From TrEMBL:
The keyword DNA damage does not apply. It is an enzyme of class 4 (lyase). It comes from Stenotrophomonas nematodicola. This is Carbonic anhydrase. Belongs to the beta-class carbonic anhydrase family. The keyword Acyltransferase does not apply. Reversible hydration of carbon dioxide. Gene3D superfamilies: Carbonic anhydrase.
Length: 220
């Protein structure tokens, strides 16, 4: 209980500090949110969405799950996308993985972690789909990094193929879907070269992104 009380104390101190710095902050925050970004990222505690892109509370709508997976049977993720696109009218969906992802590591090494093994099967499917790329890499760290990147690229495709995004594009709503990977080592985001704003853009963007996945060495 001592740890919980510490969190509550931290909250009070944070709220008091923010109130002192900006007396209107919470008043404005309590109003209807109008974020332009939906962040779909990993649940990893080291990857805080707002801080990474320098956004304040209320500026980013966030969904997180193990290994930042977007699949058509996950009603939780799809509900978040639907609300963000249809109600909040976000302009950008950011699919953000991160190097050093534990879920990707478990998949890569066939490590059993429990119930999440079934969820991580989606990442395993990505590895199998791109076996020609993965099998050509000997260095374990680089292989891990490549799977993190390939996973993001495939999740962007899944998001773009969802009925929610397809319907938004069909009615002329401006909406871009982007693929990024964040590095824990330097705090910087790497673009995967897949940025999609219309159905006809998806396949060319996908092919370009795969063509630029490094077969050896690290991505700049």
């Amino acid at each position: 209980m001592k740890d919980i009380h510490k969190l509550l104390q931290n909250n009070r101190e944070w709220a008091d500090r923010i109130e002192k710095e900006d007396p209107e902050f919470f008043h404005q925050l309590a109003k209807q949110q109008h974020p332009e970004y939906l962040w779909i990222g990993c649940s990893d505690s080291r990857v805080p969405a707002n801080q990474i892109i320098g956004m304040a509370p209320g500026e980013v709508f966030v969904h997180r799950n193990v290994a930042n997976v977007v699949v058509h049977t996950d009603l939780n993720c799809l509900s978040v996308i639907q609300y963000a696109v249809d109600q909040l009218k976000v302009k950008h969906i950011l699919i953000v993985g991160h190097y050093g992802c534990g879920g990707v590591h478990a998949t890569l090494h066939n490590t059993r972690v429990g119930l999440a093994d079934n969820w991580l099967r989606h990442v395993g499917d990505v590895a199998q789909k791109h076996a020609s790329i993965m099998d050509a890499i000997d260095d374990p760290e680089l292989k891990h990094a490549r799977l993190c990147e390939l996973n993001v690229i495939e999740q962007v495709v899944n998001a773009c193929r969802s009925t929610i995004v397809q319907d938004a594009w069909a009615r002329g709503q401006k909406l871009m879907v982007h693929g990024w990977v964040y590095s824990l080592k330097d705090g910087r985001v790497r673009e995967m070269g897949i940025d999609v704003g219309a159905p006809e853009d998806l396949q060319p963007a996908y092919e370009r992104a795969l063509a630029h996945v490094p077969r050896r060495g690290k991505r700049d």
